[in-house]
Amino acid sequence: MIFDFAGLAQGLLLALFATATVVSAHPGEAPPTPREIAAGKLYRRSAQTQYNRCNGSHQSLQRRHAVNTQVHRRQKLLEQLRAHATRRRSGSDYASDVLETSHVSNRTDITSNSTTSAVFANSTDACVLQPEVTIGPYWVSGELLRSNLTDEQPGVPLYLDAQFVDINTCDPVPDLYWEIWNCNSTGVYSGVVASGNGNVEDESNLNTTFLRGVQRTDENGAAQFQTIFPGHYTGRAHHIHVVAHINATLLSNNTLANSADTGAVHIGQ
Ligand SMILES: *[C@@H]1O[C@H](CO)[C@@H](O)[C@H](O)[C@H]1NC(C)=O
Ligand SMILES: *[C@@H]1O[C@H](CO)[C@@H](O)[C@H](O)[C@H]1NC(C)=O
Ligand SMILES: *[C@@H]1O[C@H](CO)[C@@H](O)[C@H](O)[C@H]1NC(C)=O
Ligand SMILES: *[C@@H]1O[C@H](CO)[C@@H](O)[C@H](O)[C@H]1NC(C)=O
Ligand SMILES: *[C@@H]1O[C@H](CO)[C@@H](O)[C@H](O)[C@H]1NC(C)=O
Ligand SMILES: *[C@@H]1O[C@H](CO)[C@@H](O)[C@H](O)[C@H]1NC(C)=O
Ligand SMILES: *[C@@H]1O[C@H](CO)[C@@H](O)[C@H](O)[C@H]1NC(C)=O
Ligand SMILES: *[C@@H]1O[C@H](CO)[C@@H](O)[C@H](O)[C@H]1NC(C)=O
Ligand SMILES: *[C@@H]1O[C@H](CO)[C@@H](O)[C@H](O)[C@H]1NC(C)=O
Question: Which CATH class, in words, describes the domain spanning 34-84+127-268?
Answer without folding.
Answer: mainly beta
